[in-house]
Amino acid sequence: ESLVSAAGEAEERAIESALRPKNLSDFVGQARVRQQLSLVLEASRIRERTADHVLLSGPPGLGKTTLAMIIAAEMNAPLRISSGPAIQHAGDLAAILSSLTEGEILFLDEIHRMSRPAEEMLYMAMEDFRVDIIVGKGAGATAIPLDLPPFTLVGATTRAGLLPGPLRDRFGFTGHLEFYSTQELELVLRRSAMLLDLKINSAGFAEIAGRSRGTPRIANRLLRRVRDWALVHGVEEIDARTAAAALDMYEVDARGLDRLDRSVLSALITKFGGGPVGLSTLAIAVGEETETVETVAEPYLVREGLLGRTPRGRVATAAAWAHLGIEMPESAVR
Ligand code: ADP
């Protein structure tokens, strides 16, 4: 069984990478970040220097990794990929940094989850292209300075606020990725459907886009589920009804809320009378880590006007009660 799911995951990853836009002009939406980034890259090409370090922030699945790959392609530079959780010791980072070649793009995903000593090593590397390799321990420890070739760091984080100030300050450019509009997601889906050779009418695209939680990764994932459904049911051209039927089966509701979103809202309403309740208490009630609730579920729920942040904690809005079909008592905070 694990073999089957491993093969399934490998296929998913292969499709995901096939659907990834390869250059800035194929990258849908995020007009502002795209323009700013394009200027940063163009300027560094003219100056014949490596580009400034770039920080990309935003919820998962909005295109941070894709943009890092595009930056490397546009700069015609090799790309190295690692992540904060993979770098637990300063030595792990030193090994990566010391093997970079000139102009290389280093992508660090979840950069806010790096260990403290690694973070401090990164400050110096970003600023002076230098690291101190510590040899030995205790009083006998010595620092051996090592020069690095100029490189461009592309850091990604689900929330820029999670980064310590000194690290944030060392990025020359910060791009905040926003949730995509339904129209933008339709463009993502049209492109993917073409690459996957799928027949879908306009209403079908709109239905899938509307349930994609403002997120291209989710749009592409839902598209594949709809594709499977259509295949099994012998549907030739996918319309809104087919898409809705398929996605209802996968527990994605008409507003795009998934199971985590709904369990956050339903805990807030059924266990805490709609709030206010502290984020960490809420996270415990749904059995998730605080960071997951804060960076994965909350931003979308807030954007959809279903969840409110108040100084005393999170509250469910009237729209949230309505969405879950529970009558809002007079006593609930509005
Ligand atoms: P993140 O690193 O922010 O979690 P990714 O860059 O891995 O997100 O994007 C997830 C998937 O969504 C990619 O495989 C890509 O196909 C798709 N995608 C993301 N952003 C866009 C975009 N702007 N246009 C088209 N497809 C996109």
TrEMBL record:
Keyword annotations: ATP-binding, Cytoplasm, DNA damage, DNA recombination, DNA repair, DNA-binding, Helicase, Hydrolase, Nucleotide-binding
Region of interest called Head domain (RuvB-H), as start-end residue ranges on this chain: 254-334
CDD domains named in the record: AAA (cd00009)
Top-level taxon of origin: Bacteria
Binding-site list for ATP: L19, R20, G61, K64, T65, T66, E127, D128, F129, R170, Y180, R217
Classification via Pfam families: AAA_lid_4, RuvB_N, WHD_RuvB
Enzyme Commission code: 3.6.4.-
Gene Ontology BP term (one): DNA recombination
GO molecular function: ATP binding; ATP hydrolysis activity; four-way junction DNA binding; four-way junction helicase activity
Gene Ontology CC: cytoplasm; Holliday junction resolvase complex
UniProt-annotated location(s): Cytoplasm
Subunit-structure text: Homohexamer. Forms an RuvA(8)-RuvB(12)-Holliday junction (HJ) complex. HJ DNA is sandwiched between 2 RuvA tetramers; dsDNA enters through RuvA and exits via RuvB. An RuvB hexamer assembles on each DNA strand where it exits the tetramer. Each RuvB hexamer is contacted by two RuvA subunits (via domain III) on 2 adjacent RuvB subunits; this complex drives branch migration. In the full resolvosome a probable DNA-RuvA(4)-RuvB(12)-RuvC(2) complex forms which resolves the HJ.
Function: The RuvA-RuvB-RuvC complex processes Holliday junction (HJ) DNA during genetic recombination and DNA repair, while the RuvA-RuvB complex plays an important role in the rescue of blocked DNA replication forks via replication fork reversal (RFR). RuvA specifically binds to HJ cruciform DNA, conferring on it an open structure. The RuvB hexamer acts as an ATP-dependent pump, pulling dsDNA into and through the RuvAB complex. RuvB forms 2 homohexamers on either side of HJ DNA bound by 1 or 2 RuvA tetramers; 4 subunits per hexamer contact DNA at a time.
Family: Belongs to the RuvB family.
Entry remark concerning the domains of this protein: Has 3 domains, the large (RuvB-L) and small ATPase (RuvB-S) domains and the C-terminal head (RuvB-H) domain. The head domain binds DNA, while the ATPase domains jointly bind ATP, ADP or are empty depending on the state of the subunit in the translocation cycle. During a single DNA translocation step the structure of each domain remains the same, but their relative positions change.
Name of the protein this chain belongs to: Holliday junction branch migration complex subunit RuvB
Originating organism: Crystallibacter crystallopoietes
